[in-house]
Amino acid sequence: MLKKWIEESQNIVFFGGAGVSTESQIPDFRSDNGLYKKKYRYPAEVMLSHSFYESNPKEFFEFYFNQMIYKDALPNKAHLALAELEKMGKLKAVVTQNIDGLHQKAGSKTVYELHGSVLRNYCQQCHSFYTLDQILSYRDKDGIPRCPKCNHIIKPDVVLYEEGLDDTTVYNAIKAISNADLLIVGGTSLAVYPAAGLIQYFNGNHLVLINKDNTPLDDQADLVIHDSIGKVLGEAV
């Protein structure tokens, strides 16, 4: 059924979450091996908040570099299948909650990163841009990346708890979803708002959900597949 709908569709949008990258050995958040189950002094939600970043930069960056950075991760079958669909002219956009940059690494060009990217980093004082490799090499004795130009903290361009999503990214994501004739949602529990709320803008032909666990929108989908997203997309494309 999914393969047939892909063949029939000319405006496909993919909306994905952490489950898309678990097959690239990047842990998700809520599963048994997820980030929220890790034992730290504070819960992950606290350590990834804006206020914690401001008040405890040393502990924030220790957690961030140990748990959020996977430099050697490679795109999996799901990323590659989506890039292929875009090359065919069928997939118009990827809307992702992930910050790992694997969609672009696989070859996808139109990617709306709702929660930012670990690959982009900016000095909070002089706004100079730095790559991931650069901030890894610019860490001081406390492990805090500092701008070589002004010595201020370099902040990853990721959306922390208590921070708002980028308006332009959200606008582009909504526009893409509302224009789609087929929306494929994969690897997300659809529990994180406001990102999960973007699904409501879809009014095309078919809504497909691919996730190993149930989601709150299963009963609204035209097709629900509880399986590996890499396997499903790899076979369908």
Automatic annotation (TrEMBL):
Its main location: cytoplasm. Pfam families: SIR2. Binds 1 zinc ion per subunit. The active site is at H115. NAD(+) binds at A18, T22, F29, R30, Q97, I99, D100, H115, T188, S189, N211, I229. It comes from the Bacteria. GO terms for molecular function: histone deacetylase activity, NAD-dependent; NAD+ binding; zinc ion binding. It is found in: Cytoplasm. Keywords: Cytoplasm, Metal-binding, NAD, Transferase, Zinc. It catalyses: N(6)-acetyl-L-lysyl-[protein] + NAD(+) + H2O = 2''-O-acetyl-ADP-D-ribose + nicotinamide + L-lysyl-[protein]. GO terms for cellular component: cytoplasm. Nicotinamide binds at F29, I99, D100. Its EC number is 2.3.1.286. NAD-dependent protein deacetylase which modulates the activities of several enzymes which are inactive in their acetylated form. HAMAP family: Sirtuin_ClassU. Belongs to the sirtuin family. Class U subfamily. This is NAD-dependent protein deacetylase. It comes from Floccifex porci. The lineage of its organism: Bacteria, Bacillati, Bacillota, Erysipelotrichia, Erysipelotrichales. The gene is cobB.
